[in-house]
Specification:
6-stranded mixed beta sheet; globular; alpha+beta; 5-stranded antiparallel beta sheet; 17 strands; 10 helices; homodimer
Chain lengths: 397, 397
């Protein structure tokens, strides 16, 4: 199989230097990554195997990372990482779903056998797949080591994207735009929700200009905003077979992914003639996003970007929302955020060129809401949009 | 929104009784479930919010479970569970991705405030999203409690399906069959892999007979089996834009899902005239599956089913593989197995009518392999197939 690696060796070398420098500053000899995005970012490893324990190890004195995982996934590691076979370590199959033993018993043995049993070791205590049981087995097997939380060390190292990564982010943006356009072409009163979603999945994978898309880290969300009863919205519900009504407000959130780099986008759609107040709210949101993206330049802090958005809302008498964006890039299910910088009050992270964010500008009022989000790259001239889809309340009659 | 609950209140009442009985036997007062499938099975809760901490609590003396999660997901909990608002507890938004605080600080406070601070508490140490950090915060906040691993208590309670659940499993099987048929219609030499996958996603969501499908817990896998170099296969790689070659062996693994109940299926396809030895191997596999399914009746153990399969292989001079199946049912990403009974040597779980398994009959020889899997329900007359797709090496010229 001719596997297409999206990056050359220089890119991985740069990432390793960056990671080791952060390890040194934080006082770590060894980094154990279980976050699939961190594993991929460090080595190129790509496969749907994160539902079993696996990890990438970076040791300060080792030239290359070590991949540790299920024996049957070792071949995928060889193909996707290009690491030498000596740096690919498979664990015994019977340890899968074993009531007493655990793959990380063998990981601990590996670490001890390399002479790192008393090392200062970073683990990712809050990575989705680093379960309490993984940690318990590792702790027990490494009783002489000093295990501490990495504090999302590698996630933070991923924050500023290289030019090669930005190329993929822009391709993801084009896939996302094309997908949203296809969804908008399908949405109409009477169409069952799942028919729209089927189009979305098809478009996400077909991609654009011969560049195919990957599965995205969240399922597409098409959410009719409820205007009956208590009248609040419900994010994160998935689709049903309800036909779209004649007169309703819909929020659609999707992403495009290219080699697992994600560009997410939200648009608000009104079926039938929209009430004036929703048109007005959407205009305010678009104005707020424009102002924030204009502000998003190197040297400005995350909270300053949020403040600009907030000012536009306040000037229009709208109450604020706490977090209006988060960093994006390479990711795997179930989340496409990087879990690092947020555009919210108190986040003093200074923007640098090449950081990417999803400006998730949802505003929920008492009986209705709207969101017109934008994924963007920080540049010297402000936030560069990754997607190009109509920035307005989209009316479908 | 008219949310379609797939089950009535009696079904949830039955599940709660079953869970409490197992809690009693295991010596637990309180069960904390974070596994999304366990949360859904106990309450009906459904949403793509498992990337943030959340849980369902079952206390021995409480009539109904308690949902605990992010405040913005509380509405989805109300809609999907039908629990009274007093049993829906949202946590503070600033605790999301907080460097010091954690949502489970508030979960611990909730448990203490209910008078359960010294209870015998079951936690799911190996559930995908129960991270080491979740556990650390819960342990710290519940210093008087006795926390122990549940041993997949609720997963085991899910093993035997009710008639209503079996109805959904059969619908999932029909969706899976239709999806595989559409993939087979698309597969041909020269077609880029991703075009096949786009069809698969579309078919998975469109469903059959007006019954739409859900996202599945694993992405579809289309894997050209490598016959060059060391000649081994690589499960879990995802698709590329490589066109399918003129003469090659392909393994395709997909699922259909209905209200998150999964029926997975694997088929092996040869493009061009297949070598005789692969045709022969596939025949042996199909014979082995037939024999095993014939054996899979109430009272027989998991390892006995595996042994029957193994005998067919051995009689044909083929070396065995350790695990040949696992229980299936309701699930969420990233895995569709229930993490309980396995069809493998040493598993003495006794089959009961209504258990469901994926008989994953892959055989990997030195330079090639094949798999013709079947999801099935245990019945008095043997394993009832959930899918109906040609059981043979599928040749596409």
């Amino acid at each position: 199989m001719n596997y297409h690696r999206p990056f050359g060796p220089d890119e991985y070398a740069r990432r390793l230097v960056e990671t080791k420098s952060r390890m040194d500053a934080a006082g770590f000899d060894l980094m154990i990554c279980q976050d699939p995005a961190n594993m991929a970012w460090l080595t190129g490893f790509d496969g749907w195997s994160f539902y079993v324990p696996q990890a990438v190890l970076v040791h300060a004195w080792e030239e290359r990372p070590i991949w540790f995982g299920r024996a049957q996934d070792a071949k995928a590691a060889l193909i996707t990482t290009g690491l030498p076979a000596s740096n690919i370590v498979g664990y015994s199959e019977p340890l899968i779903h074993h009531p007493v033993g655990h793959p990380f018993d063998e990981l601990a043995e590996l670490i001890v056998s390399r002479g790192w049993g008393a090392a200062r070791i970073a683990v990712e205590l809050d990575a989705h797949y680093y379960t309490a049981r993984c940690h318990a087995h590792l702790t027990r097997g490494l009783s002489d080591a000093k295990l501490r939380d990495s504090g999302e060390l590698v996630n933070w190292a991923r924050l500023v994207k290289s030019d090669a990564e930005l190329g993929l982010m822009r391709e993801a943006g084009r896939i996302c735009s094309a997908t949203m356009d296809r969804a908008l072409a399908k949405i109409a009163p009477g169409v069952p929700q799942y028919e729209v979603i089927a189009e979305v999945y098809h478009a996400q994978v077909m991609g654009v200009e011969g560049k195919f898309g990957d599965y995205t880290s969240l399922c597409p969300s098409l959410c009719p905003l409820i205007q009956v009863g208590e009248g609040t919205s419900t994010p994160h519900l998935t689709w049903t077979d309800e036909p779209l009504p004649d007169n309703t407000l819909i929020m659609m959130e999707i992403a495009g992914a290219r080699h697992h780099y994600h560009a997410p986008l939200t648009r608000t759609i009104h079926l039938g003639k929209p009430p004036g107040k929703i048109v007005e709210l959407t205009k305010v949101i678009v104005e707020g996003v424009d102002a924030a993206l204009e502000k998003a330049r190197p040297g400005v802090s995350c909270e300053e970007v949020e403040a600009v958005w907030q000012q536009v809302l306040n000037r229009n008498g709208i109450k604020k929302e706490s977090r209006v964006g988060y960093s994006i890039g390479l990711n795997y299910p179930p989340d496409w955020g990087e879990r690092t910088a947020s555009l919210r009050p108190g986040d003093k992270t200074e923007l640098q060129a090449g950081m990417c964010f999803h400006f998730q500008s949802g505003v929920w009022l008492e009986a209705y809401g709207a969101a017109v989000s934008e994924p963007f790259v920080v540049t010297q001239s402000g936030g560069e949009r990754l997607c190009d889809v109509r920035r307005e309340l989209i009316v479908i009659d």
